Amino acid sequence: DGGITQSPKYLFRKEGQNVTLSCEQNLNHDAMYWYRQDPGQGLRLIYYSQIVNDFQKGDIAEGYSVSREKKESFPLTVTSAQKNPTAFYLCASSTGVAGLSGVLTFGAGSRLTVL
Amino acid sequence: DAKTTQPNSMESNEEEPVHLPCNHSTISGTDYIHWYRQLPSQGPEYVIHGLTSNVNNRMASLAIAEDRKSSTLILHRATLRDAAVYYCILRDQVQGGKLIFGQGTELSVKP
Known about the structure:
- Chain A is an all-beta fold.
- Helices cover 0% and strands 49% of the residues of chain A.
- In chain A, a hairpin with a 2-residue loop joins strand 5 (43-51) and strand 6 (54-57).
């Protein structure tokens, strides 16, 4: 079945450590996104990529980094520069071709807790 | 980026219709209107989308105002499983790009 796989589902990190969240899709989608969600809040956009080897900052990119070396993969690194990284992280993908409606498909999320 | 405004919360009784409003007064002519919903501790799931005309699918209906500055998601018979946070967002069909989610509407359904 086609979909988006995020791993790990739960992750614990000590302060000062970098951590990388994996996001893989087999939907042949061009565009991929990373969102952050805090308890009781909506989704905030961290980074997005509309094509391989290209990505743009969202509204809260500071302290995060991404890469898009392959169409199916869009890993997110939470660096030690992110002051409050404990949150629920969601990856999504969509058709990115202009002229299409671009419905988003989301992964199940990764919950990061900083100890 | 065009933004949307939704009520923070709404209540409904089971098996009654629910109308969830969304205002998007700065919508451009190339923006699609998308609706998603999110259950606790899960990723959002797609509900419905439209451009200008009203749309129906197995989950819901989408009514779009003639001037496209507002839309309404209609759940014809609410069930307990419809209790979720519902998000209305705009997607530029030409540029795609940034997709900004607002706070959404938390729908509770009473038995």
